[in-house]
UniProtKB/TrEMBL annotation:
Catalytic activity: dimethylallyl phosphate + FMNH2 = prenylated FMNH2 + phosphate
Domain of life: Bacteria
Family: Belongs to the UbiX/PAD1 family.
Organism: Candidatus Segetimicrobium genomatis
PANTHER family: FLAVIN PRENYLTRANSFERASE (PTHR43374), FLAVIN PRENYLTRANSFERASE PAD1, MITOCHONDRIAL (PTHR43374:SF1)
Domain Flavoprotein residues, every copy: 13-183
Protein name: Flavin prenyltransferase UbiX
Keywords: Flavoprotein, FMN, Prenyltransferase, Transferase
Amino acid sequence: MRPPETRTPQPRRLIVALSGSTGPHYGVRLLEVLRAHTGIETHLILTAAARKTIEFEMGKDPNAVAALAHTVHDEKNIASAIASGTFVTEGMVVAPCSIKTLSAIANSFSDTLTIRAADVCLKERRRLVLVVRETPLHAGHLRLMLRATEAGAVILPPVPGFYHLPKTIAEIIDHTVVKILDLFGIHLDLIRRWDGLS
């Protein structure tokens, strides 16, 4: 008689990718919050363009950002663990998500690890959140968003709410981060949540 199999519980894992679009603040803050307030294992893809944007827009060392993640994956390494559906994750966030990245995801053009990992999330029916950072939008952008949504992605543009009465840019960024985390069942009160008018 075969002994019962013992299974090691899988850690909760989340893939975070930063494309080269403006607004790396969203992905960086997401990593900071996940590291400080959760036990979730983060797997980071930091594109070459994102590294440049982090330096220019945030004045931060990209290596310090990378250090926030548990594991950093080379964007060119299609053989990485996160390129397979057998590597179990909660899903993936691309923040910010450039239109180029959106286009590749919407069309399954898996030439980088970011796109392959996103495609894996879609095929495995895992949550994929795209923080698309572009404005204004033309019809081609909107069609790409529709196509990605039809495949199972969630389009979450960083459109700030003001009902929490933000006083700083950091509080505006946190509004979007809370919206992202809520989609993964991670409910952190980084902002004052709406509870109606008194």
